[in-house]
Design goal:
alpha/beta, two-stranded antiparallel ribbon, 43% helix
Length: 227
Amino acid sequence: MEKNSEDNKQDIEESGLVNTTKGRHTIHCLTVIGQIEGHYEANAQMKTTKYEHVIPQLVSVQEDPEIKGLLVILNTVGGDVEAGLAIAELIRGMTKPSASIVLGGGHSIGIPLAVSADCSFIVPSATMTIHPVRHSGTVLATDQTMNYLDSIQQRVTDFVSDNSRISPQRFKQLMTQTDDLIMDLGTCVDGKTAVKEGLIDRIGSIGDALEYLYDEIDKRENSEETQ
């Protein structure tokens, strides 16, 4: 049953999701904003995307025959690495066409989320910050701790390089630059540079992403009809 405008309004306010049903195909729109919240709650004053809300949405999108594609819109400062990678792996594993758009910012763990879609877009004014994995709270100064952080960093690097056109070596180079960010390691790239570096597939926004999804859905449906 199609939702009415009040139901859609409540979904948007509570979890930032909406199904677009007026175009050529039904597309599920997922927004990832603010900080990606993982096992611990973020500051109450900060806007967050909670992974325990997003994961069931993605399962529903995969299983619902009426939803034909997924659009992920990102404006995030990053957040919990394991939560971000979990969401990114689910998006990558979907069998339905997916597209992502980076608006404003797709920083830190937002990068794996951006590249997890079949096709990624970024607006020219958006930025993406690439930096090493950080750890908050109590840290034991041991070799085991450093090895653990290195393994997490390698997981992020492997995921990004496997799902984009950037090499692991270049990604690590951007991650460890010392002359770009004040008092920090890393690099901040704008939309055009992100495409040039191979992080993101194309410059574009909402119209471009939806047109890509519609075309992919049409191709798959036509292919199924001819089999």
